[in-house]
Write a structure and sequence with these properties.
Largest sheet: 3 strands, antiparallel
Low-confidence stretches: none
Number of strands: 3
Mean pLDDT: 84
Structural class: alpha+beta
Number of helices: 2
Radius of gyration: 16 Å
Shape: elongated
Helix content: 10-25%
Order of helices and strands: EEEHH
Strand order of the largest sheet: 1-2-3
């Protein structure tokens, strides 16, 4: 299994703290490294909480603004 990219996960967020800029809402982690690295180093294996952001799914199908269903 390929390592998940935290920046593409819906649980990832950027914190205000410069010392710990990466955060994960799922695991309650704020760290300098990507949260998936912290999860792996804690002995939990690969991150099981990864969920793709919804915006990535929407980009796959372009929205047709001329469709009468939207208006």
């Amino acid at each position: 299994m390929e390592k998940p990219n935290c920046r593409d996960c819906k649980h990832y967020f950027v914190t205000w703290n410069q010392r710990t800029p990466n955060g994960c809402r799922r695991y309650g982690i704020e760290s300098k490294e990507n949260p998936s690295v912290i999860v792996h180093s804690a002995g939990m294996g690969d991150c099981q909480g990864y969920e793709a952001k919804r915006s990535k799914e929407l980009k796959k199908t372009p929205l047709d603004l001329n469709s009468k269903d939207l208006w």
